[in-house]
């Protein structure tokens, strides 16, 4: 295979992933992930997650022996570099290349089939690309914050007497409902904290908390990247994550979700960079909720201030001599409505109030707008 052919295949993969042509680090990680023979096969996928083919069709397109093609695809699938699913009509196993984020990065660094030395080299190559997460900053973020289970339960109790139209919790606002609406549930290692653990700067928060749903869950279980969960097991992981101060982040869509990430404010590619570059509302869509503090109950313990993943809460010392007017305040411009504060308040002084009314229809409209947006509409 000539160098010209090798470069052609790698560039086709880059284009399928819709990654910038001028970034040399993009080609470095693609070349690390795929050998030239693998790249030849993977390069047939024109658009990540949209171009899917059966083994038979891939063999025809590549003109390579079936045994060779199958071995390469199955190996890459276990490494998290090729996504697999089953066509319900034909019952054929289908193959495609995942997007870079979320997709290749997450499944590759979560996969147990990649040895430690390989992961270390990959992390070193990928490190300069981590900042490219900022390119996802947009008026149409691909991820959305879902409030904590405990805070939503408390909100429902408070709103029992409120008119349904004003207090109704929609599917994308309730991780319980998302789980109940999913056909399959699985958990795998958090790739962001695995990645930063390799680099030596992980925050040490729990690892086995990254939840995959539906076809993504089927994929990670089938390829041995994750393990299957019941709804109750998934809820326990979510509740444990809330106690650890982690934020539930989901696809920014009304239904058919593929993941519930449990993110910290430092290692997470989206939330971490949102904090780093002060682009919280452009990296992740805020939930419809906002914390309200009962001043009569609040003991000023600062648990919420310490736990807030976006540093939106602060203690404001009062002007009175006895400082009796000292209070906890929340910055509405920074708060993402995750409910971590409400879930961990030792005196239950914080509840979540619905202040926005983004609906399922709004999210569907945003998806169409995001797909058709012009270069001028992008933040970067």
Can you walk through the features of this model?
With 380 residues, the chain is α+β, with helices and mostly antiparallel strands. The chain is built from 18 helices and 13 strands. Among the domains are: 3-98, Orthogonal Bundle (Arc Repressor Mutant, subunit A), CATH 1.10.10; 143-287 and 357-377, no CATH class. A 6-stranded antiparallel beta sheet has the order 4-8-9-6-5-7. It has a 3-stranded antiparallel beta sheet with strand order 1-3-2. Helix 1 (3-16) packs across helix 2 and helix 1 crosses helix 3 (36-42). The two termini are 38 Å apart.
SSE topology sketch:
Blueprint: H1 3-16, H2 24-33, H3 36-42, E1 53-54, H4 55-62, H5 66-78, E2 83-86, E3 93-96, H6 100-110, H7 116-126, E4 143-146, H8 149-158, H9 164-167, H10 175-180, E5 185-188, H11 191-199, E6 210-213, H12 214-222, E7 227-228, H13 231-243, E8 247-251, E9 259-263, H14 269-276, H15 280-283, E10 289-293, H16 303-307, E11 313-316, E12 327-330, H17 340-344, E13 350-354, H18 360-372
Antiparallel strand pairs: 1-3, 2-3, 4-8, 5-6, 5-7, 6-9, 8-9, 10-13, 11-12
Helix pairs in contact: 1-2, 1-3, 6-11, 7-11
